UniProtKB/TrEMBL annotation:
It comes from Bacteroides uniformis. The lineage of its organism: Bacteria, Pseudomonadati, Bacteroidota, Bacteroidia, Bacteroidales. It comes from the Bacteria. InterPro entries: SusD-like_N, SusD_RagB_dom, TPR-like_helical_dom_sf. Keywords: Cell outer membrane, Membrane, Signal. Residues 283-515 form the RagB/SusD domain. It is found in: Cell outer membrane. Residues 99-219 form the SusD-like N-terminal domain. This is RagB/SusD family nutrient uptake outer membrane protein.
Amino acid sequence: MKRKIYIIYAFLGMTFTGCDNILDSTPAVTISEDLFWQTEDDAEKAIIGVYGPLMDEYYFAGHTEPVWDVQSDDLYRAGDWGDDAQLETFNANPEQGELFGRGWKLKFEGIKRANDVLRNVPSMSISEQKKNEILGQAYFMRAFHYSRLMLIHGGLPLYDENLPISEYNKPRATHAETYEFIERDLEKAAELLPLSWPEADLGKPTKASAWGLLCRFYLYEEKYQEVVNTANKIFEHKDLYSLMDNYGDNFLVEKRNEKEVLFAVKMMMMADSPAWPFNLYFYPHAFGGWNFFHPEQSLVDEFEYLDGSPRRKIKFQKEDAENCKYVFTDNGEIVNWQKEFIQRDPRLRATVVTCGESFNMDGAVYTFPAGDTMTGYCCNKYIDPNHHAGLCNLHYCIVRMSDIYLMKAEALLKQQGSSNAEIDGLINEVRRRVGLADISNCTMEDIIHERRCEFATEGLRHYDLIRWKLAKTVYANDNGPDGPRTFVEGKHELLPIPQSEIDLSQGVLVQNPGY
């Protein structure tokens, strides 16, 4: 039976005796370090442990990572969990232990496990190829865990080795130093990882996974030539990496989409048991979910008509718990969604579900009622059309090939100040995939628009608006259910360091400005 290695590993609670950890953890299995680190199987078990924290409810196996999108103008928070509401209204505080404290500990647990691998595997008596594969994954995942913390909190204490408990209390590095640390790890990962994996190992990071994240962080740092150079490394391997023909196939595990999905956290059913609770937050109540996050109307209005007609704005009108209608704001005409989805950019259909739609899941028909939404929509990217909530095969995409096209286009435009055939060609590759007409003389407004449609509800919009210095203006004009929001520049680019961690550090960790 083939062994599929997807990033769906259970939380492997393995630590070692005789080794002080930078985090407190309760091991499920305690193994003497002298008896471990002997075989390839030991190395494989250890690297699986580095992925393990991803599957905790306060990392990806819940809503803690996707929840950052409620800060953007793409998603509205409709659940009753208070932490979400505070995020959405930019009122987060350092005392939110569940949201910030547990996420902080989980990511540093992943970093600690990566450091264990990086310290022990080089001296193991295993093949050089296996060493490189294991070490490449460890460098990649250490960078990944750090990158998720950095986007949220800024500069961090940097650990490239596990220290005795008496020495682990380190101050935060600067934002720039943290970027450099992450970039070095990704560069090392790209050096060691393979271009692709055999069938049995699909889902592990590749060279392109590391290059793709490098492009993103170079772009955040305005290192535009590095973005171009790194993107070109991926484009040199178009036989391996390219766009999927069908945009929506990127989000279903059952589709062979490794050529576009350079890295994703993948959720799969195992032996008919729930995959993880992540999708519960996106499914409507009628589909067995908790329905926390609803796409906003401004996002829906962003998608173009295929024939180039002017975009028309829509308004959702809920008549009662079961019935609703959508009308065009220009003339009050009722929207025919069957017709509208055919006429619009197909990424809209892949992104939202509208009231009244039905799905045949697990042999039963589920219908999305009006009473299940504040905005009129739920997130289609995180609905498996074959299974109700809790039983699903889905991707949470981290970096896709379309992002490489658009990041390179943006970097070139920033460098040159105006468009040319190469820049237009990059953005048009992404547009052609969904049947949209080519554009010429590409502007930043075109890239901003294209990124919103291409990566809607994938966790990038808020950080894009911050780096474009548009967050304050966009959120002040937000037309979601909560209305305009106040984004304070110099504060809300980051979220607070957990107060519990500052207390544990006895003040060595310094809080972010404004909190």
